[in-house]
Amino acid sequence: MQPATPLVLCVLLSQVLLLTSAEDLDCTPGFQQKVFHIDQPAEFIEDQAILNLTFSDCKGNDKLHYEVSSPYFRVNTDGSLVALRNITAVGKTLFVHARTPHAEDMAELVIVGGKDIQGSLQDIFKFARTSPVPRQKRSIVVSPILIPENQRQPFPRDVGKVVDSDRPEGSKFRLTGKGVDQEPKGIFRINENTGSVSVTRNLDRETIATYQLFVETVDVNGRTLEGPVPLEVIVIDQNDNRPIFREGPYIGHVMEGSPTGTTVMRMTAFDADDPATDNALLRYNIRQQTPDKPSPNMFYIDPEKGDIVTVVSPALLDRETLENPKYELIIEAQDMAGLDVGLTGTATATIMIDDKNDHSPKFTKKEFQATVEEGAMGVIVNLTVEDKDDPTTGAWRAAYTIINGNPGQSFEIHTNPQTNEGMLSVVKPLDYEISAFHTLLIKVENEDPLVPDVSYGSSSTATVHITVLDVNESPVFYPDPMMVTKQENISVGSVLLTVNATDPDSLQRQTIRYSVYKDPAGWLNINPINGTVDTTALLDRESPFVHNSIYTALFLATDSGNPPATGTGTLLITLEDVNDNAPFIYPTVAEVCDDAKNLSVVILGATDKDLHPNTDPFKFEIHKQTVPDKVWKISKINNTHALVSLLQNLNKANYHLPIMVTDSGKPPMTNITDLRVQVCSCKNSKVDCNAAGAPHFSAATALLLSLFSLARL
């Protein structure tokens, strides 16, 4: 036969915290009855006893303190549970927590027929209504420990006890886990002999809501005998956190004239307390509205959702009649479902009344006047309008259109972005002689379309009367520029052309006189009365004042007005080339060694200032030789170059060779130029030329230079 089953000492935790010794078996600390059932009344009456609770810590109940899970109730010192005010609904369950320095326990009040307001505290606390059932083949018995957060001194305080019904003599309890030997360390500890579990400081549920600990028994050498067995510590929430608005700034917009009940924005706050309790059950309300016109209650906030909606009629939500289109609301969030005992937090909601285009722009007057001188351009008048809409939106910004009186597109109108005025401009010069008056019809609209029930009226159009002032206009040459083609070198006094200038002031009788304004070469003269232009010198196409065969001169035409007006005309003379320039050769100096094996002396090139056909092909000849015949030779390379060479070596000396070059003009022109040839002594890579001041180029160098010149042509 096995010995009798050992006595199982259960840990009566679940907030039944046994602080008595094992010898006090005649008294069980805690509530004498742990579960009560009552029917849901029509109303709980203020200060009327609901039931009586009996609690004993087996030590005289010194400093007994009760806490109720609902802020609407309290427990008097005699154990009677009463309501703090008349109330109809409190949920399905109430919990009462009793505590003395020696023991604490929790009782449950089940309200039959009650409705849930927030999650069951029984679920939150994981409260077990019955004693824990020991696991098979285990003698360590544990139950969850419930500890309210923010407990006051003294510490450490016992919060529970672990019981081992079959613990060998000399064995000890050991507690491990987060909060013991893991960070945060040292919060819980266990009496290794008695199994009493204690907490060393107050707890914060918002930091850590539950602790998962492990209990085991070990021998004197620290070896595990049984376990580890899980021990859960649950921190009971207290209402110690105010609601806070974390997502600001809160800015909402609502269109003016919006229907009553239009949602503007949503305000939501956060409460760090347990969301399964009323400690985090928030209710919202508007504490203040600024400004308070035209109604102190322009908006309403849904107490549960935090939605802000309009509550005034669309007519009151008129941006143009409001004192200020911006409202600031002080929003309050209160926990404990909005009860007075709840904690509060506030934030500011800014609501902007947005503009819609419900006002058309209107001209400040029906007719505008403008005066402009003929020929002038730019802004001549600013058209002013009024618009009651928001100046920062397209509902206010104006767009102007000329709808009549501008067939020649002489006028344009643009909006001044700062003033919203219409700037009417002349973009093509007006002519007094054609029309002295103009009448424009202009309309104004907004950038944004009007709302359906608003339209543009007669005030959105205006008439502009423009008077053109006559001014003395400058004479105008026609054509301009004037062009003529003449041969260069025509005789002095030759007539080139007669210029013509007319006065635009056709309604005035005025005379015109001509004069030369710019004549860079001084070749021209003009008759001041009839405008005939003739030459005072020979025209030279090759002059530096002629560019691309064109000579440019400017003339003035001045009328007899008061004050007189002057116009400018341009004359372009195209000069035809004649063969009046002889060609010339290059280079005119060359060197050759007296013992050179290569008898080539130099390659000559020729150029001519005239134009084709008065230039190349050029004819190269030796005009006269001062040495015996058959010493020099000149050979044509191409139309512009020839090669000069020796027929035999010469002694060291300076030689002058007359080269005659003739162009292809009709009649042709010829030029004779002396080619200076230095015959030098070339010994041991040294060149010796006796001629003073003569350049010491070898014949090979001169030949290379000549070839380079030829290659560039």
Q: What descriptive keywords fit this protein?
A:
Immunoglobulin-like; disordered C terminus; four-stranded mixed β-sheet; five-stranded mixed β-sheet; mainly beta; 713 residues; 6 domains
Structure summary, number of beta strands: 52
What is the end-to-end distance? Answer: 136 Å
Whole-number tally of structural domains? 6
Class by helix and strand content? mainly beta
- CATH C-level class of the largest domain is Mainly Beta
Main sheet specs: 5 strands, mixed
User: What is the 3D form?
Assistant: elongated
Within CATH, the superfamily of the largest domain carries the name Cadherins
Catalogue the unreliable spans: 1-25, 118-137, 692-713
Q: Can you give the mean pLDDT?
A: 86
Please tell me how large the radius of gyration is.
Answer: 59 Å
Helical proportion?
under 10%
The CATH architecture of the largest domain comes to Sandwich
- Would you give the CATH topology of the largest domain? Immunoglobulin-like
Give the DSSP E fraction (strand runs of 2 or more residues). Answer: 35-45%
Q: Number of helix segments?
A: 2
Summarize the structure in words.
This protein is mainly β and 713 residues long. It has six domains: 30-112, Cadherins (Immunoglobulin-like, Sandwich), CATH 2.60.40; 140-236, Sandwich (Immunoglobulin-like); 244-354, Cadherins (Immunoglobulin-like), CATH 2.60.40; 362-469, Immunoglobulin-like (Sandwich), CATH 2.60.40; 476-576, Immunoglobulin-like, CATH 2.60.40.60; 584-688, Cadherins (Immunoglobulin-like), CATH 2.60.40. The chain is built from two helices and 52 strands. The strands form 16 sheets. Strands 45, 47, 50, 51 and 52 form a five-stranded mixed β-sheet that branches. Strands 2-9-8-5 form a four-stranded mixed β-sheet, with no helix packed on it. A four-stranded mixed β-sheet has the order 11-18-17-14, with no helix packed on it. It is elongated and about 160 Å long. Residues 158-172 have a biased composition (Basic and acidic residues). It is a lipid-anchor; GPI-anchor. Residues 156-178 are annotated as: Disordered.
